Amino acid sequence: MLNTFTTLVERDHGEMAAALDVIMSPRTSAATLGDVVDSLRLAFAVHALAEQRVLASFVKNRPSFAITEIARASRYDHIEQQRIFAQLTSYVPGSRTWNKLVLELRGSMLRHALDAPGIILSLADAIAPLPDRELAGRYATERMRLLAETLPAQDTAS
Fold it and tell me: Would you say residue 156 lies in a domain?
């Protein structure tokens, strides 16, 4: 299967939704919960930054009102989700407020995921023809770059 920008973004959204389902499950142990929340936080950060960098390159290289608005809407969604993640750290996992915030985060992420196909169609309208393979390559490269930056430094002195 050929990866496109759309399929890569949809895969990220699907993986984050699955992680939220695990977090929301009453059968998830406290140890697993911590690991899944950490994984979700990393997946979200990588996704949000990679998406923003790809969209920002279009705003810079092909400035238009439509492209600027697409990037702004995506960034706004990610800022809102980051705000919820930040609030989650203030509460005990499984507490009433924590669960409420998880539901709010899930709703925000699902809305963003449902809007993604329309956003990509709008991007295609603004950039005709849409260089989907180029977008996919940029997005995948940004994701890998961001993941590499999160790896602990290795001792190469030996």
Answer: no
Residue with tokens 């809305």: 111
- Residue 118 scores a pLDDT above 70: yes
Residue 10's pLDDT is what? Answer: 87
pLDDT value for 68: 87
155 occurs within a structural domain: no
Range of the domain at 113: 5-146
Long-range contacts of 2-5 (CB under 8 A, 24+ apart): 2/133, 3/136, 3/140, 4/132, 4/133, 4/135, 4/136, 5/54, 5/120, 5/132, 5/135, 5/136, 5/139
CA nearest to 116, candidates 47, 22, 42 = 47
* pTM for the predicted model, two decimal places: 0.82
Average pLDDT, the chain: 85
